[in-house]
Amino acid sequence: MLNSRLDLLTDYPFDRLRDLLDGTAPPPGVAPLALSIGEPQHTPPAMIAEAVAANAHLWNKYPPPPGTPGLRAAIVGWLRRRFGLDALALDPDRHVVPVAGTREALYMIATLAVDPEAAGPRPVVLMPNPGYHVYAGSGFMSGAEVRFLDTGPDTGFLPDLDAIPEADLARAALFYLCSPANPQGTVADRAYLRRAVELARRFDFLLAMDECYADIYTGEAPISALNVCQDLGGDLDNVAVFHSLSKRSSAPGLRSGFVAGCPKVMAKLKLLRSYGGATIPMPIMAASEALWNDDAHAAENRALYAEKFDLAARILQGRHGAYRPGGGFFLWLDVGDGEAAAKRLWTEAALRVLPGAYLARADGAGNNPGAPYIRVALVYDPATTEDALHRLARTL
Ligand SMILES: Cc1ncc(COP(=O)(O)O)c(C=O)c1O
Question: Do 215 and 196 fall within a single domain?
Fold first, then answer.
């Protein structure tokens, strides 16, 4: 009765962590802290509550699936300001689709990009390994063959684009990339993104660039795949970028983000969403519009993360390969055995962290590129984070 592909969804990281820690307990009297999930705990901007209250009369309206014109215009305004896209003729109606959080859109994009009826060998979905688990789930459910591209210090923690076999590129329907990368925080530079866009066009697959951490950085601001589209003359073909208010505005509960890029893809995404997509309630769209129109709160948010990476540098002193990532809010620590470290941190220091193995797939020989690592989400306020980092340093 059930879709047998569901049996491939075995790797939900937080279920695996629950199973790992099942039957164990944190030490008595120590406050447990969840550094496992990338759920920002900073106070969300007051403008959310204000916009929701001011638009409370709209709860009785079915929201338009493609979003309100005001929201789409605010998104285009932010893209232009944030990435300097003045030479790109971004059209709020043709190039932007607001979505109820990027997770659903990242999932849905595989249904859109992978053609199960295509003649010839099965389509391929490419993704970084480790990577956000939704990419694999959507790839499997679409019926494609999923190729996990191992990353590590030797590849600069991004997939080595030159190492992908040409046969896989020729069969590729979709390539997920993430910059700043979850979990390692690597930022893809212009040359890397240009190569990715050029491959997408040469082999005619969709490059799905997950850029949801783009506004959290401590050095140079990460660029977007849209910058490369601008550099290459302004065509948006074969490219879709994904952005979210969950991280930028510390509002994961708002469920608000957007996809932007190739107009053919955006048109089909709108169509698909009008059948199976969650619409964004009108008051939430009003709040989202206010957030995309405002950069000050995002700068304050960024400053808090910078403060926490300063604390991490001081407390960890580079131990376990600790480094300041180009973007995002995770520490990616090489602890030798991530599962063993996660257990110890829970039972000895009441810290929940995610074993890196749970963010990656093992190859046929059982090698999992995430296995030596733990991912530590610096999502609490600086004082709580400082306490957590001291506990972590003492325990490991
Ligand atoms: C890499 C990455 N992409 C996408 C998402 C989804 O974010 P949201 O659905 O809240 O926009 C997350 C959330 O943790 C993430 O880490």
Answer: yes
